[in-house]
């Protein structure tokens, strides 16, 4: 059942090239320059008339929502707010019939997300679901939706659900951008072609596994770790930290790299490993200067870099390469080494990777 892998989590990490392809299959027609998603076409007016999009989710799905916020605003120029479902439902939020709410949930059963959807519907908002489990409560409760086709995710730590959620949300953003005319047709086509190449680039990123395993060995006994990223890779830093916490029980925090100097930099010393996402596109020079600040305080640096990188390699203790892609697709690649790093550390510490303590695969109570 684990297909020869020692854990479901590892199997699911390796399934990502196929899961992403399954998720865009039939929807992404790159050569024709078309994105076909019935749930969007049928409700195009609601999306185009929306004053804003509110994304509600929990945990890893909330991180996918944050990535989507950057993509929707950047490409489709639609204002987006991303809310923890548990906060949204209890704070008397302002919701109108002109709002579109997108709920993201792997299981489709998360109690807080379901309650947030019901609240939004009661105020007349249009609710669109992005779920993995067909026929789940959230899939049934939403007005329309698009499934991720990740296949069953058994490991409690979410991996392929995250990358396929980002895939679906990227397709939606591109479709809306085209409809609104916020992207030039050449830029739009370039995005379609680059998205089509993501599965093979994920497969390429997975090849760093042995190297990541060796790095994991050096840092498995750390008490804390810091994850940093900017722009599109800030949510990836949050997700990397969550992954490490939940399966290895090592305390980790994700931060926007530039927020360092507003507090967390005080934590840096020779015992603090810092995982920093420093891919070529997306504030690269600024991230390099953040790395210099960490190095000056003797922090250990693990850089997630673009293939062939030189500058970060000179400064960092270790680098892990991912293939080059467009800035707004980079989370699909930079997430991969962070998943593997937390997996290997947890295995080396003898933790129950697939079923970490205190956690359940679907959180059906608030
Ligand atoms: C993290 C994790 C949780 C879930 C969260 C939401 O690895 O698995 O944080 O992401 O409980 O679950 P879904 O997406 O099923 O609503």
Automatic annotation (TrEMBL):
The active site is at residue 361. Its EC number is 2.6.1.16. This is Glutamine--fructose-6-phosphate aminotransferase [isomerizing]. One of its GO terms (molecular function) is glutamine-fructose-6-phosphate transaminase (isomerizing) activity. The chain holds residues 250 to 615 of 615 of the full protein. Residues 43-182, 215-356 form the SIS domain. The keyword Transcription regulation does not apply. It comes from Gelidibacter pelagius. The gene is glmS. It is found in: Cytoplasm.
């Amino acid at each position: 059942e684990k297909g020869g892998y020692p854990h479901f989590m590892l199997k699911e990490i390796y399934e990502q090239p196929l899961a992403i392809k399954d998720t865009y299959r039939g929807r992404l027609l790159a050569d024709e320059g078309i994105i076909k998603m019935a749930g969007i076409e049928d409700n195009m007016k609601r999306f185009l008339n929306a004053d804003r999009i509110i994304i509600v989710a929990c945990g890893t799905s909330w991180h996918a929502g944050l990535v989507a916020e950057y993509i929707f605003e950047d490409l489709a120029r639609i204002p987006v707010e991303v809310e923890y479902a548990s906060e949204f439902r209890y704070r008397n939020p302002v919701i109108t019939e002109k709002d579109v709410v997108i709920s993201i949930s792997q299981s489709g059963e998360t109690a807080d997300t379901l309650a947030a959807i019901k609240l939004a519907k009661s105020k007349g908002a249009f609710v669109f679901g992005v779920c993995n489990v067909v026929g789940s409560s959230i899939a049934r409760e939403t007005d329309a939706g698009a499934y991720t086709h990740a296949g069953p995710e058994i490991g409690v730590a979410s991996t392929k659900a995250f990358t396929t959620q980002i895939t679906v949300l990227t397709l939606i953003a591109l479709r809306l951008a085209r409809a609104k005319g916020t992207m030039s047709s050449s830029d739009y086509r370039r995005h379609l072609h680059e998205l089509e190449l993501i599965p093979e680039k994920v497969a390429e990123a997975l090849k760093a596994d042995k190297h990541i395993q060796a790095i994991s060995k050096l840092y498995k006994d750390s008490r804390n770790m810091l994850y940093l990223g900017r722009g599109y890779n800030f949510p990836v830093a949050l997700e990397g930290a969550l992954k490490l916490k939940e399966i290895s029980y090592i305390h980790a925090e994700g931060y926007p790299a530039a927020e360092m100097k507003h507090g967390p930099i005080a934590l840096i010393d020779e015992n603090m490993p810092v995982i920093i996402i420093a891919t070529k596109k997306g504030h690269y020079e600024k991230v390099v200067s953040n790395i210099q600040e960490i190095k000056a305080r003797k922090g250990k640096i693990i850089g997630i870099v673009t293939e062939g990188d030189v500058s970060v390699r000179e400064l960092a203790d270790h680098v892990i390469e991912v293939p080059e892609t467009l800035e707004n697709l980079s989370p699909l690649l930079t997430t991969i080494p962070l998943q593997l790093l937390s997996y290997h550390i947890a295995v080396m510490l003898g933790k129950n990777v697939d079923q970490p303590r205190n956690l359940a695969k679907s959180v059906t109570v608030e």
